[in-house]
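tool=predict chain=A
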Amino acid sequence: EVQLQASGGGLAQAGGSLRLSCAASGFTFDDYAVGWFRQRPGKQHEGVACISGSGRTNYADSAKGRFTISRDNARNTVYLQMISLKPDDTALYYCYVRYWSKDYWGQGTQVTVSS
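tool=predict ok
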Protein backbone atom coordinates (compact mmCIF):
# COMPACT_ATOMS: atom_id res chain seq x y z
CA GLU A 1 0.00 0.00 0.00
CA VAL A 2 1.34 3.39 -1.01
CA GLN A 3 1.68 5.75 1.92
CA LEU A 4 2.98 9.30 2.14
CA GLN A 5 3.57 10.89 5.53
CA ALA A 6 4.27 14.61 5.57
CA SER A 7 5.75 16.37 8.58
CA GLY A 8 7.68 19.45 9.57
CA GLY A 9 5.03 22.11 9.32
CA GLY A 10 4.39 24.66 12.01
CA LEU A 11 4.36 28.33 12.77
CA ALA A 12 7.03 30.60 11.31
CA GLN A 13 7.53 34.31 11.12
CA ALA A 14 7.75 36.11 7.81
CA GLY A 15 11.29 35.77 6.55
CA GLY A 16 11.79 32.55 8.46
CA SER A 17 12.30 29.03 7.24
CA LEU A 18 10.88 25.55 7.61
CA ARG A 19 11.81 22.16 6.24
CA LEU A 20 9.07 19.73 5.36
CA SER A 21 9.60 16.00 5.02
CA CYS A 22 7.60 13.40 3.15
CA ALA A 23 8.28 9.80 4.11
CA ALA A 24 7.11 7.34 1.47
CA SER A 25 6.46 3.63 1.48
CA GLY A 26 4.74 0.97 -0.58
CA PHE A 27 6.50 1.54 -3.89
CA THR A 28 9.97 1.54 -5.40
CA PHE A 29 10.82 5.04 -4.28
CA ASP A 30 13.79 5.63 -6.58
CA ASP A 31 11.69 5.07 -9.69
CA TYR A 32 9.05 7.73 -9.12
CA ALA A 33 8.75 11.47 -9.09
CA VAL A 34 7.31 12.98 -5.93
CA GLY A 35 5.71 16.39 -5.69
CA TRP A 36 4.70 18.90 -3.08
CA PHE A 37 1.35 20.64 -3.37
CA ARG A 38 -0.35 23.16 -1.14
CA GLN A 39 -3.79 24.51 -0.51
CA ARG A 40 -3.97 28.05 0.72
CA PRO A 41 -7.11 29.26 2.54
CA GLY A 42 -9.91 29.87 0.08
CA LYS A 43 -7.85 28.80 -2.93
CA GLN A 44 -7.49 25.69 -5.04
CA HIS A 45 -4.61 23.40 -4.43
CA GLU A 46 -1.52 24.16 -6.45
CA GLY A 47 1.73 22.45 -7.28
CA VAL A 48 4.79 23.80 -5.51
CA ALA A 49 7.69 21.62 -6.60
CA CYS A 50 8.46 18.15 -7.83
CA ILE A 51 11.50 15.97 -8.13
CA SER A 52 12.10 12.99 -10.38
CA GLY A 53 13.62 9.73 -9.22
CA SER A 54 16.96 10.87 -10.64
CA GLY A 55 16.78 14.26 -8.95
CA ARG A 56 15.54 16.55 -11.71
CA THR A 57 13.48 19.35 -10.20
CA ASN A 58 10.71 21.72 -11.20
CA TYR A 59 9.24 24.61 -9.28
CA ALA A 60 6.19 26.80 -9.40
CA ASP A 61 7.01 30.44 -10.00
CA SER A 62 5.98 31.22 -6.43
CA ALA A 63 8.59 28.77 -5.12
CA LYS A 64 11.54 29.60 -7.34
CA GLY A 65 14.46 31.05 -5.44
CA ARG A 66 12.92 30.37 -2.03
CA PHE A 67 12.04 26.66 -1.91
CA THR A 68 14.32 23.73 -2.58
CA ILE A 69 13.06 20.21 -3.11
CA SER A 70 15.41 17.30 -2.56
CA ARG A 71 15.23 13.59 -1.93
CA ASP A 72 17.11 10.93 -0.04
CA ASN A 73 16.44 7.67 -1.82
CA ALA A 74 18.13 5.69 0.97
CA ARG A 75 15.55 7.04 3.42
CA ASN A 76 12.58 7.07 0.98
CA THR A 77 12.07 10.70 1.89
CA VAL A 78 11.52 13.91 -0.02
CA TYR A 79 12.21 17.28 1.56
CA LEU A 80 11.02 20.80 0.90
CA GLN A 81 13.29 23.45 2.34
CA MET A 82 11.48 26.77 2.49
CA ILE A 83 13.21 30.06 3.22
CA SER A 84 12.13 33.71 3.13
CA LEU A 85 8.65 32.61 4.04
CA LYS A 86 5.77 34.97 3.42
CA PRO A 87 2.31 35.09 5.01
CA ASP A 88 1.00 34.08 1.58
CA ASP A 89 2.81 30.74 2.00
CA THR A 90 0.35 29.83 4.73
CA ALA A 91 -1.24 26.60 3.55
CA LEU A 92 -1.70 22.91 4.06
CA TYR A 93 1.26 21.27 2.34
CA TYR A 94 1.06 17.70 1.16
CA CYS A 95 3.09 15.37 -0.97
CA TYR A 96 1.96 13.42 -3.98
CA VAL A 97 3.00 10.51 -6.14
CA ARG A 98 1.41 9.01 -9.20
CA TYR A 99 1.89 5.27 -9.08
CA TRP A 100 0.48 2.87 -11.66
CA SER A 101 -1.78 5.63 -13.03
CA LYS A 102 -3.29 6.31 -9.63
CA ASP A 103 -2.80 9.45 -7.58
CA TYR A 104 -1.72 9.21 -3.95
CA TRP A 105 -1.73 12.11 -1.52
CA GLY A 106 -0.31 12.39 1.95
CA GLN A 107 -2.37 13.78 4.79
CA GLY A 108 -0.65 17.14 4.76
CA THR A 109 1.21 19.32 7.19
CA GLN A 110 0.08 22.83 8.09
CA VAL A 111 2.40 25.78 7.56
CA THR A 112 1.38 29.10 9.06
CA VAL A 113 3.47 32.20 8.45
CA SER A 114 2.82 35.24 10.58
CA SER A 115 3.63 38.78 9.49
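The first strand starts at residue 3 and ends at 7. DSSP finds no helices and eleven strands in the chain.
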